[in-house]
Amino acid sequence: MNAVTKLRKAMRLILVGPPGSGKGTQSGRLLSHFQMSAISSGDLLRENIREKTPLGLEAEKIIRDGGLVADDIMVGLIIGELSKRGWVESRSNLSSGVTVSGAMEMLGGTPKTTRLQACEAPSSSFLLDGFPRTKCQAKRLDEQVHMNFVVNLDVPSDVILERIAGRMVHVPSGRVYNTGWNPPRVPGIDDVTGEPLTRRPDDCPEAFAHRLKVYYESTFPLLEHYDKVGLLWTVKGNSSDEITPVLDEEILKRFG
Ligand code: AP5
Ligand code: MG
């Protein structure tokens, strides 16, 4: 696929998969294949850490140790971001809604209680990488925005562990490289900006093992939830190159 394809129906996709399963990699490819946008909860948190916002200072140690940031903060962060980017709008005539005050205050924004409606223009299609990650987050998202496709990246654990050992990232953009598979043109340097690449502090073996455990305890159960409501679609594969064409085809079938 060369040109960017316009979808005919608004897609609101949740990408679920263990750490290192290729969510960020697939997300980057989907953005170059389809007219859509993406939010990575991990990238947003890392941006806050880099900018030393109150939220970033709070999240830094949790992320380094491989734990999960509190649900209230995450819901506020993501819902706030969806509104800011105009992919969802307020519905003033509805009474109940999520309180985003906690996270908005930490982000320096205006506390507010609101309820949202997804924008149905196909150009407002978006994907969420890394959110929701707990049942509580999923329920809060369900209350606010009707997501219409959940993709589960099913990649074997031994493949994942090998990948993480070679991962390098360009933190400001979220671009992901791998020393063995998709190395940068110049070792240790981002292809686009020429800036240095780094290893994520939470990719050390102890934190990574913890992230995997947290995934199977807290996030894996979400698959059952989305399966029950008929949104779950699982794609298996040892490599992102196997997964990408299958995923593209499924998106075209549903939204093209
Ligand atoms: P987040 O940044 O979301 O991390 P993650 O879910 O652990 O996933 P990763 O980003 O590590 O992996 P990925 O699936 O994106 O894989 P990638 O494409 O990089 O979250 C980080 C932390 O933030 C969490 O631990 C938590 O603390 C906090 N957080 C975030 N969201 C939260 C939430 N909702 N609630 C609470 N806390 C939250 O690929 C991995 C590697 O494999 C790369 O090197 C890549 O180049 C390589 N690779 C990809 N495809 C291939 C291939 N085909 N062959 C070989 N290598 C490949
Ligand atoms: Mg990622």
TrEMBL record:
Tell me the segments the record calls region LID.
166-203
What gene codes for this chain? Answer: ADK2
Positions annotated to bind GTP: G20, S21, G22, K23, G24, T25, R167, V176, Y177, S240
Pfam families, A to Z: ADK, ADK_lid
Keyword GTP-binding listed: yes
| Function, in words | Involved in maintaining the homeostasis of cellular nucleotides by catalyzing the interconversion of nucleoside phosphates. Has GTP:AMP phosphotransferase and ITP:AMP phosphotransferase activities.
Give the record's keywords alphabetically.
GTP-binding, Kinase, Mitochondrion, Nucleotide-binding, Transferase
Q: How does it assemble?
A: Monomer.
This protein's domain notes = Consists of three domains, a large central CORE domain and two small peripheral domains, NMPbind and LID, which undergo movements during catalysis. The LID domain closes over the site of phosphoryl transfer upon GTP binding. Assembling and dissambling the active center during each catalytic cycle provides an effective means to prevent GTP hydrolysis.
Q: Which GO terms describe its biological process?
A: ADP biosynthetic process; AMP metabolic process; GTP metabolic process; ITP metabolic process
Adenylate kinase active site lid domain spans which residues? 167-202
Record organism: Pyronema omphalodes (strain CBS 100304) (Pyronema confluens)
Query: Gene Ontology terms, cellular component aspect?
Result: mitochondrial matrix
UniProt name for this protein: GTP:AMP phosphotransferase, mitochondrial
Describe the reaction catalysed, as an equation.
Answer: a ribonucleoside 5'-triphosphate + AMP = a ribonucleoside 5'-diphosphate + ADP
